[in-house]
């Protein structure tokens, strides 16, 4: 029995509902990098207690979508140059090694069973540019559902890592979770959907022959785009 006067624990359902709403706003770009997350306004918006909002914000901090700082509260992660480089270094450590292991398993001819999950993610990503594309998350006049692109991009890379059959690497890569979703939000200014699909299709085709080198070059290219854009933004300030 809880002690008299103890604050009741927030409902897990309510916490996840608030976290999901704020997560969507972050991943869609509705909440810009560095935006403060205010407990009081979020509590009013969602009709919950500040205690529930605080727990929801803690989830987002754990997912590295937000940061909490003493005396400054919680804000949307900035995904600055250092964050980009750190994430890409971790991805390279996991994805390059996963593909190296897959190459040891399969040689120069990877079976369809290893490649089909990534192919399927790409096919569904490409289909988002068709007549049925949702405009719910459009940016300007862009009808593409970029939240779904973010999810399928992560699914593609998880599928490539899964080809390794290494449980610890697969689990570590899955733990990147929301950070990998956030990555596509920040590379969006550099890509149309067609270009993004084409680049990942080329990567998939190169995996059996070039393996780790293909993955390394793929990650270095996107890192250079993001780091370069942040350097230009810094010079403009």
From TrEMBL:
It holds the Pfam family GntR. InterPro entries: GntR_C, TF_FadR/GntR_C, Tscrpt_reg_HTH_GntR, WH-like_DNA-bd_sf, WH_DNA-bd_sf. The keyword Transcription applies. Keywords: DNA-binding, Transcription, Transcription regulation. Residues 12-79 form the HTH gntR-type domain. SMART domains: FCD, HTH_GNTR. One of its GO terms (molecular function) is DNA binding. It comes from the Bacteria. The keyword Nucleus does not apply. SUPFAM superfamilies: GntR ligand-binding domain-like, Winged helix' DNA-binding domain. PANTHER family: TRANSCRIPTIONAL REGULATOR, GNTR FAMILY (PTHR43537), TRANSCRIPTIONAL REGULATORY PROTEIN (PTHR43537:SF49). This is GntR family transcriptional regulator. It comes from Agromyces tardus. The lineage of its organism: Bacteria, Bacillati, Actinomycetota, Actinomycetes, Micrococcales.
């Amino acid at each position: 029995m809880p002690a008299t006067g103890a604050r009741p624990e927030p409902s897990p359902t309510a916490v996840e509902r608030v976290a999901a709403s704020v997560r969507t706003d972050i991943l869609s770009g509705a909440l810009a990098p560095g935006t403060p997350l205010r407990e009081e306004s979020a509590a009013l918006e969602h009709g919950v207690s500040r205690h529930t909002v605080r727990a929801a914000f803690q989830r987002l901090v754990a997912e590295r979508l937000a940061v909490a700082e003493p005396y400054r509260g919680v804000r949307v992660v900035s995904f600055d140059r250092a964050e980009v480089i750190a994430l890409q270094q971790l991805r390279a450590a996991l994805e390059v090694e996963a593909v190296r292991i897959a190459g040891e398993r399969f040689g120069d001819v990877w079976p369809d069973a290893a490649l089909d999950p990534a192919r399927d993610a790409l096919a569904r990503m490409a289909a988002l540019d068709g007549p049925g594309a949702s405009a719910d998350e459009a940016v300007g006049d862009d009808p593409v559902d970029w939240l779904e692109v973010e999810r399928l991009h992560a699914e593609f890379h998880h599928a490539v890592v899964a080809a390794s059959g290494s449980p610890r690497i697969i689990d570590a890569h899955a733990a990147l979770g929301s950070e990998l979703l956030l990555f596509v939000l920040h590379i969006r200014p550099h890509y149309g959907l067609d270009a993004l699909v084409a680049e990942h299709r080329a990567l998939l085709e190169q995996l059996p022959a070039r393996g780790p080198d293909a993955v390394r070059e793929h990650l270095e290219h996107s890192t250079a785009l993001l780091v370069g854009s942040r350097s230009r933004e810094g010079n403009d300030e």
